[in-house]
Structure formats: C-alpha cells, structure tokens
C-alpha cells in the first residue's frame, strides 16, 4: 500500500522534470465546471500544477449558465437556420454571465488555496481580437449576430501574470477592431491562446472519456493519435466532439507539441493525464515525419 503510493509519486518524477516551467492552457467547461465537488477537484489540480512549477492558464465558456440567465430574464432568442442569434441585448447577458459570474466562480475556487487566480475577459488589454463570424448553412452565409472568430491574440498580459506567479483565468469574450464585443467559442479561444503563448500543452476538459476509436460502434478510447489521422476522423465525429478535436488540431498544427481531451467528470483528470505515463484521455501530437523512400 505505502509502496504503491510511493510508486505513484515516483511515476510522476519524469513528468515533473519535463514540464517544470511549462505553460499549459486548460479549457475548462462541462460537468467539471458545474458540479461543486468537481469544481473543487479542478481547483486542487490547477494549484497543484502551480506548486509543481508549471504555468497553468484557464480559458472558460459557459453556455448552460448563459442560457439559464437568458431564460430567467425572459430574453427570447431568435434562431436563424437553427442557430441562436446573439443580439446586442443577448450579448450584454453573455458578457455579464461569463465575466461577472462564471469567471468569478472559477477565480474564487482557485483562490481558496492562495492569491493565485486573476480573472480576465478576452477584451482586456486586447487579449483576443475577433471578427464577425457568419455561419455556413447549406453553402450560404448566415448572420448569427455578435459571434466572433478570433483573428489576433496579444498574450502579453497573460505572460506578465504568469511571470508574476499568477494563474490567469480568461473568459471567452473578444473585442472587434471597432470595439464591438463578441462571444467566441471557448475551445477555439483556448487553442488560439495556447499557440500564441507557445504553450507546451493544451488540455480540453469535456464530458466524454476521450476520442472513441470506432464511434458510434465502440467506446474504446484512443489514447494517442497523430494530427493527420485525427484530421481524417474529424468529419465522422459526433457534433459535440468536433470543436474539441478541432481545437486540438489547431493547437498542434500551430506548434503546441501536445493537446489532450480529458473527461472532466473524472476527479483529478488533469493530474492523472499529466503525471502518469499512460494518462487517461486522448492525446494529439504532431505527425511523425515519414521516412523517405
Ligand atoms: N492519453 C495519453 N496517452 N496520455 C499520455 C500522457 C503522457 C504524459 N503524462 C504527458 O502529459 O505528456
């Protein structure tokens, strides 16, 4: 028993050595964010990383919380081609909920452990700049309101906070060149930030175990996959999984050496992935150069 515990700690040693000083961007969402005990576990993991000498950065969204609040305020959403349109009125709520509520909750959970977390909106110090995004429906461009696509990242403020020993917590809101506020996908924002920071890892927390080998026929999780193989699988993936895996692909193709999709319903998934040899989710890595014939 005690030997087992020692082995667990010793298994972590090479990973502690390898990731000391490494910047790790974590997309936080799903059950890990909405359930109290999982939220506390998440905060433990992030603070553990910090004390282990890693530099974690958190990016979060908050779709369910936004929808609940829109309902509570009786703000009706209009839909175009099945997509929710983010009107200026809805955008006010999106920003209020993400920055004023969800971000504060994440910061509070981490700061139980010490003065680490500092909340930021993607608007702050021009961290995330976006352009209006149109949805493509049956080949036609459809306006869905203040939904943005990130076109530029200025991560200076995040770096300054990291250098100062803090844990930046970023809401997935972006600013347009003209000052318009945009809602941006948090998976995409996390990937863009990981690339800009030249992070050692992107970790995306979701509510599934990982990438399934032969979805929907089997639930065997793929432990590791190369970028091109993942790109081939993308069209056949479930709708919910596509943005997560696309984020991993973007990160890896943008120079991040490893991107992981983890089951946020599993307590301490982050520690188990980073500090064990096998991990518990799906890891995406760049293609190994093919040998020349
Ligand atoms: N899903 C996997 N195959 N994970 C392996 C993780 C290996 C190592 N702990 C790392 O974070 O790089």
UniProtKB/TrEMBL annotation:
The record marks 27, 244 as: Transition state stabilizer. Catalyzes the ATP-dependent phosphorylation of N-acetyl-L-glutamate. The keyword Heme does not apply. It comes from Acrocarpospora pleiomorpha. GO terms for molecular function: acetylglutamate kinase activity; ATP binding. Its EC number is 2.7.2.8. One of its GO terms (biological process) is L-arginine biosynthetic process via ornithine. Keywords: Amino-acid biosynthesis, Arginine biosynthesis, ATP-binding, Cytoplasm, Kinase, Nucleotide-binding, Transferase. Residues 23-263 form the Aspartate/glutamate/uridylate kinase domain. The gene is argB. InterPro entries: AceGlu_kinase-like_sf, AcgluKinase_fam, ArgB, Asp/Glu/Uridylate_kinase, Glu/AcGlu_kinase, NAGK-C. Gene3D superfamilies: Acetylglutamate kinase-like. The lineage of its organism: Bacteria, Bacillati, Actinomycetota, Actinomycetes, Streptosporangiales. Substrate binds at residues 62-63, 84, 183. It catalyses: N-acetyl-L-glutamate + ATP = N-acetyl-L-glutamyl 5-phosphate + ADP. It is an enzyme of class 2 (transferase). It comes from the Bacteria. Pathway: Amino-acid biosynthesis; L-arginine biosynthesis; N(2)-acetyl-L-ornithine from L-glutamate: step 2/4. It is found in: Cytoplasm. This is Acetylglutamate kinase.
